[in-house]
Amino acid sequence: MNSSGLPPFLADMFAPILELARTGGPVVVLLGALSVITLALALAKLIQFHAAGTGRHVNARKVLRVWISGERETAMQHVGGERSVLGDVLVHLVRGASNGRGTEAQLREDIERVCLNKLAHLRSFLRPLDMIAQTAPLIGLFGTVLGMIQAFQSMQGAGANVDPSVLAGGIWVALLTTAVGLAVAIPTSVFVGWCDGRIEREQQAMEDLVTAFFTGKPTEAAPVGVVDLASHGRRHAH
């Protein structure tokens, strides 16, 4: 154990991080906290996607083909056999069509509600991640501006006895916060884009599934009035 109270291997591991925080000051500490929050939210998103079954479309499409072929009893026996977003949508469609309650228009309205709720759930946690990706560079730039102000104040106080090495040291410390801000923002932005891509693929799969269910044949795009998911904002849910 050392003065920090950590085992030697942990102290060696965290020493560069602590030194970076001491050098960069409160702004780097804030950006470090944002990076921890980002990591936690990203892990939560990965767990959520896995639990929801995003990307698992094979079983739902097989059951849909069985339903369209007219073997509805067989389809009802196998629907919901695999946990997935698309499978849950198909379960609602099959059950709604099988119990015969309500009109086709009502079923379409209900399945649109189900799809929108599914998409809203998949978009959860993306808004804070997007905010971190946008604000981290600005926070880093703010730290750089503060550092430059301090560096030039020191230069002014030194008068004619300005040491260029001291000024250069102040400037690189100021630029450090911008570098840390970008280091937080870039991977966060990439991850948000990856999540958006997966959600868009799920949305397209839902539209194709719903259209095929009502028309009785697969199609690449949902006609107007079946389920207009694209018109509902691709806004991130809180």
TrEMBL record:
GO terms for biological process: protein import. The keyword NADP does not apply. Its main location: membrane. This is Outer membrane transport energization protein ExbB. The keyword Transmembrane applies. GO terms for cellular component: plasma membrane. Residues 101-207 form the MotA/TolQ/ExbB proton channel domain.
